[in-house]
């Protein structure tokens, strides 16, 4: 990929990327540098579009969207990391980042609710869901992992994004495939082609042909589990954390899930670190774990205890958590109080724990650690 950036000085994304390289958290990669420059071009357009001064706010004319970016490449090439840097640097309040499947799930749910309402018989449900989005002041929509597999999304996307673009929303998206391969071989694909044309008209399409699978390199040759309850187990997880974050200590973060915020004790470069109690001793459910699995490619869980019958609810959440991470292909590091075979100490969850232990064993294997993320759909409410 060659950059078409016209900026004389590095923009915020490239500056943040260069800082990570300088600290040794990343290895410099020319393709990632070029992608950062293209993301900086989007930021420059958004900055130029912001109202200037009081008169600018009073007489702010409706403007079209800034040219967005569609960044595609194979798994582990750094698309999510670059999106992190871009989103954090975006100079506007009206911005949102969400996994593509979760966004479409919300759109379908909104349309379904509208159809059941008194107005739903005669009005356009797409218009009905777009109107509050635009009214909220959204100017930048960042969609992770755009993939189109089912016909319901395929038939909706063109109408949906025509309205979003007309409302001034700028789109930045990542994907594993070029636009022309979206919904490849899908039913009635000719009806989907206008959406591909729409994407190309409103987004710059760029590839990220980075030389190596960076996610796989993080875990190569690593022991991802530690056993015991002392300082040695904690220290082993500390070492793994710094390995997968490139030495970044991390900072607290948030996962937004169905109207509430889930606190994340530590996040850095697409990884998250939780204590067992943070995930399994709080009222979290399937959708919460899916949101977490979509937001992070690597997760460390400290202090997984032996779960007896006094911990049935926590054990059920742990089982659900592991199922979700496994289905998604998220990389797991964890410290356990006891060997895996002794984790489940409750006859109420004994059968389910057999599968969980089997999955935990597989999740520490070189084969699993070398795989990319899987395109698991969002969970139902």
TrEMBL record:
<dbReference type="InterPro" id="IPR005654">
    <property type="entry name" value="ATPase_AFG1-like"/>
</dbReference>
<keyword id="KW-0547">Nucleotide-binding</keyword>
<dbReference type="InterPro" id="IPR027417">
    <property type="entry name" value="P-loop_NTPase"/>
</dbReference>
<keyword id="KW-0067">ATP-binding</keyword>
<protein>
    <submittedName>
        <fullName>AFG1 family ATPase</fullName>
    </submittedName>
</protein>
<dbReference type="Pfam" id="PF03969">
    <property type="entry name" value="AFG1_ATPase"/>
</dbReference>
<dbReference type="GO" id="GO:0005737">
    <property type="term" value="C:cytoplasm"/>
</dbReference>
<dbReference type="GO" id="GO:0016887">
    <property type="term" value="F:ATP hydrolysis activity"/>
</dbReference>
<dbReference type="GO" id="GO:0005524">
    <property type="term" value="F:ATP binding"/>
</dbReference>
């Amino acid at each position: 990929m060659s950059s078409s950036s016209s900026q004389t000085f590095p923009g915020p994304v490239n500056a943040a990327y260069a800082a990570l390289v300088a600290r040794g958290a990343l290895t410099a990669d020319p393709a990632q540098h070029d992608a950062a420059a293209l993301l900086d071009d989007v930021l420059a357009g958004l900055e130029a579009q912001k109202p200037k001064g009081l008169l600018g706010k009073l007489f702010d004319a409706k403007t079209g969207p800034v040219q967005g970016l569609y960044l595609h490449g194979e798994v582990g090439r750094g698309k999510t990391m670059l999106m992190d840097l871009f989103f954090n640097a975006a100079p506007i309040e009206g911005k949102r980042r969400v996994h593509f499947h979760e966004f479409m799930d919300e759109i379908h749910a909104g349309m379904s609710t509208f159809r059941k309402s008194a107005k739903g018989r005669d009005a356009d449900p797409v218009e009905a869901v777009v109107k509050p989005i635009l009214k909220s002041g959204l100017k930048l929509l960042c969609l992770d992992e755009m993939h189109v597999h089912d016909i319901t999304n395929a038939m909706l996307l063109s109408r949906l994004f025509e309205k979003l673009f007309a409302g001034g929303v700028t789109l930045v998206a990542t994907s594993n495939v070029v636009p022309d391969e979206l919904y490849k071989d899908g039913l009635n694909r000719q009806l989907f082609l206008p959406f591909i044309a729409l994407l190309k008209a409103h987004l710059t399409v760029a590839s990220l042909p980075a030389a190596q699978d960076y996610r796989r390199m993080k875990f190569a040759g690593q022991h991802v589990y530690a056993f015991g309850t002392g300082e040695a187990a904690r220290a082993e997880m500390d070492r793994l954390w710094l390995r997968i974050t490139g030495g970044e200590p991390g900072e607290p973060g948030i996962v937004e899930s169905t109207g509430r915020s889930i606190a994340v004790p530590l996040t850095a470069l697409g990884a998250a670190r939780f204590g067992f109690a943070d995930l399994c001793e709080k009222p979290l459910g399937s959708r919460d774990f899916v949101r977490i699995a979509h937001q992070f490619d690597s997760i460390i869980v400290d202090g997984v205890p032996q779960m007896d019958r006094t911990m049935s609810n926590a054990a059920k959440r742990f089982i659900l958590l592991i199922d979700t991470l496994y289905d998604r292909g998220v990389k797991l590091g964890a410290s356990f109080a006891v060997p895996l075979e002794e984790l489940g100490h409750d006859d109420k969850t004994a059968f389910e724990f057999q599968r969980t232990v089997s999955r935990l064993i597989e999740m520490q294997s070189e084969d699993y650690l070398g795989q990319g993320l899987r395109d698991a759909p969002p969970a139902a409410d």
